[in-house]
Amino acid sequence: MDTHNGTPRIVVGVDGSPSSQSALRWAVRYAGLVGGNVVAVTAWEVPGSASWSAPAVDATFDEEEAERLLVEEVRTVLGEDGASLVHERLVHGHPADVLVAEAEGAELLVVGSRGRGGFRRALLGSVSQQVALHAPCPVTIVRPDVPVD
Q1: Which end of the chain is more exposed for a tag (fewer CB within 10 A), N or C?
Q2: In a domain, 147, yes or no
């Protein structure tokens, strides 16, 4: 339960992949069943920044554009009515770390089985595997071909 108002908070990872789009649809449907709120989270980090001793700066990253693209993706996947049920958050950091932190106090964390990166043959992407191991709440992993209706 969300500690702020007693309404279940459902956190879903969104990265533009078919798997995360299925996860977003699943999360909204589940939230409707339990009377919850959905928070769609996209994480961003500068590639290769982990090896720097000083904070890395990506001159090509436009945070406002990334936020706009996140809102646009939610609208494209859910339509205007569905998108009105979702709060979007763009957070700097490694996706698994960001999702685990955002899931603190949530009823459920929903992720796709595979995101934009990684090896196509892997059954689970590294982010979904990490959040399944470390999330502070139950985790649902959604495959891209799972029907939601």
Answers
A1: C
A2: no
